[in-house]
Amino acid sequence: MDAHFEPPVALGAARELVEPSLRAAVDRLDPKVRRVAAYHFGWEERDGSPGRGGGKAVRPALAVLSARAVGADGTVGVPGGVAVELVHNFSLLHDDVMDGDEERRHRPTAWTVFGRSAAILAGDALLALAFDVLLDADRGRDAQSCLASATQELIVGQVYDLEFENRLDVGLTECIAMAGAKTAALMACAASIGARLAGAGPAQIEALETFGRELGLAFQLVDDILGIWGSPEVTGKPVGADLRARKKSLPVVAAMSSETTAGAELRALYAGEKLHTDADPQVVARAAALVEEAGGRRWATDEAARRLAVARTAIANAGLDSSATRDLLALADYVTQRDH
Amino acid sequence: MDAHFEPPVALGAARELVEPSLRAAVDRLDPKVRRVAAYHFGWEERDGSPGRGGGKAVRPALAVLSARAVGADGTVGVPGGVAVELVHNFSLLHDDVMDGDEERRHRPTAWTVFGRSAAILAGDALLALAFDVLLDADRGRDAQSCLASATQELIVGQVYDLEFENRLDVGLTECIAMAGAKTAALMACAASIGARLAGAGPAQIEALETFGRELGLAFQLVDDILGIWGSPEVTGKPVGADLRARKKSLPVVAAMSSETTAGAELRALYAGEKLHTDADPQVVARAAALVEEAGGRRWATDEAARRLAVARTAIANAGLDSSATRDLLALADYVTQRDH
């Protein structure tokens, strides 16, 4: 992972295109609900003063680029970008409540500031709003259909993620399926929703969907690697947070399901009591070393590269606009090599 | 309230029309999510064995009757009936988690059986599904738009309901606004969604919406009266449950905001420590007597009758189908005179 890898220009441009509509949509919410959402997005602090901005807005960028990829203006993808970003943030708000996560993007999570009920209700409002914003778009029906399927997959992904917490026998196949549902499905929708709104044909939509899905898995693999070996400044989480939480992330499950002595030792560590929020740093370091020794890091790095290659190939020969394709590829490189 | 008031024939007929589609929609969910939803609907017990059925399905009946009211076949309203029932049950699942309610329809609530996260996720799934089921309907856009607005109102209603729990100065106007958002908005959507799907004109849609909104408020007033004076067999809740929970229901707020000594005593009782889940039955009985003495019961009964009259008038002269209008009026009488 390169240090100081610069965000591609298309990411900023897409955010500038989508954010005004996203803010306008959220501004339509009741003030008490809007306040929670605006805090969560990073637009406001808890006292209502201006915030320092939010996430990278990768999904809105994919939506805008997917419209451009099929020859339409980027603005055609904007309602799609707003909708997928709303669904993404609905799921973050609810997941943080369910997982009890207290920090996100270096800030206290919304439920810790406003309470669990307020965060649940704000998430509900964003989900309903996502379908609402597509009502006025031409060809919104097809976009809504992809959004509805992706939302159901997202929910199922969280169901399995929570279930995995209580199991030690999680297999690699089901772990990949979980990540596919929890992360890749909405990325697939984001990467094709602009093309859908532009009325593209099925072959181009499918190519963009494959791009988004494979990129989503590569992204999750990189995220999981950072969750173990990333520095706190990069991840916004404490060192080894995923290991302390005994999270069954992809590199961990790959290591555990390897038939190695390191894998067996890692399983024993996860089954015991030594790994926890306040665990001895040496125990956390040992767990990380075991994942590496059992081949979990290697596998995850290779698998991310393989997924990224499949993503690249999917859009290389689909007759898409060449400038948009370049931007999509740059975005893919960025989100899978990020150091932040 | 008459004893043994029989449900109107139209209620059963509409349920028979809507339930197969409702079940088919829920069956499309992932099995783990579907299981929670099927338990919540009363279709299954916690072990997956057949349940004894669910709620009265008033909203689906309104949807079907509103299609018939504008001259269409009742089946035209079915996707609308499914969608409003899904949104209604999404809100019940989430509200029970937020309110910590452990019983609904004489059964343990879903979160007490499957856990809070499972209930939140099942609610999320039903909300997304509600928009999904309207995608294939002709004129689904207008129906979705009314559903999206009603959902936002529903959410805001719950925000205020929760806020009221921590306040003693709740005014009658804001309490009516809360009930309007939490109950009446979705009833207004239910009572007009079939007409929207049938492509009715704005005057008929508005008449049906007014009918649903006023009926929704009358329904809530009756529900609040039952919450204080209803028997447990009727309400499915322990005697005086709303008073034990120090709920700011409409009759209570009416009593508290009356300038009477009984109202002042009731305020003091709500501000103190004597009213709680295990309170002395005499204290609960005293609170109920104070609501009555301060005119809260009288006001709520009169207000329900007044709202019901407005509802009736709204559809009396709107050029609606006379047989459907008769069924709507019978349904309105039933839900506001129910003894169960």
Question: What does this entry look like structurally?
Answer:
The structure is a homodimer of 340-residue chains. Chain A is built from 16 helices and two strands. Chain A has helices at 9-27, 31-41, 58-69, 78-99, 110-114, 116-133, 140-165, 172-197, 202-229, 232-235, 241-244, 250-256, 261-271, 281-293, 296-316, 322-336, and strands spanning 103-104, 107-108. In chain A, strands 1-2 form a two-stranded antiparallel sheet. In chain A, helix 9 packs antiparallel against helix 15, helix 12 (250-256) crosses helix 14 (281-293) and helix 15 runs antiparallel to helix 16. The longest helix of chain A is centred in the middle third of the chain and has 28 residues, at 202-229.
Q: How widely separated are the two ends of chain A? A: 10 Å
Count of separate structural domains of chain A: 1
N-to-C order of helices and strands of chain A: HHHHEEHHHHHHHHHHHH
Helix content, binned percent of chain A: over 70%
